[in-house]
Amino acid sequence: MKKEGKYKTIVFGIGNTGRQDDGLGWLFLDFLKTQNPHMDLEYRYQLQIEDAELILNYETVIFIDATKEDTGDGFYFKTCKPSEAYSFSTHALKPETILHLTNTLYYYNPKAFILGIQGYQWELEIGISKKAKININKAKDYFKKNVIVDCILTN
What we know:
By secondary structure, this protein is of the alpha/beta class. It has a single domain, classed as HybD-like (Rossmann fold, 3-Layer(aba) Sandwich), CATH 3.40.50. It has 4 helices and 5 strands. It has a 5-stranded mixed β-sheet with strand order 2-1-3-5-4, with helices on one face. The longest helix is centred in the last third of the chain and has 25 residues, at about 130-155.
């Protein structure tokens, strides 16, 4: 059953603040709360099958997560396309898989994006690395200038 969210955009912050740079997704959502972004915010340790139904309520979905990839500029913001790729070795699902499930099960395909913020340290410790702090600040600047404005105008 589809119900309306408060806003037209949902943002998933994925991560774990107890594992250093893996907490970048949650820290980014903490920042977004201070911006009054006209978006619904969801904290996740990992994406689950149930999230495929949740995104039925939104026109736009943004996934924010730390990445081990060398992004070149410390982060990337790119379109997220549905993919049925999944792994039997983990219970966590990729954003692309969640979109595939939403499309396959509910015949719905929202606009979707991934903000990947490059991290460097992943041990059991609270606090992000100095390099990750630089990267999240770059991502915040980009998001304020390019994404939040668009979401306010469309919500």
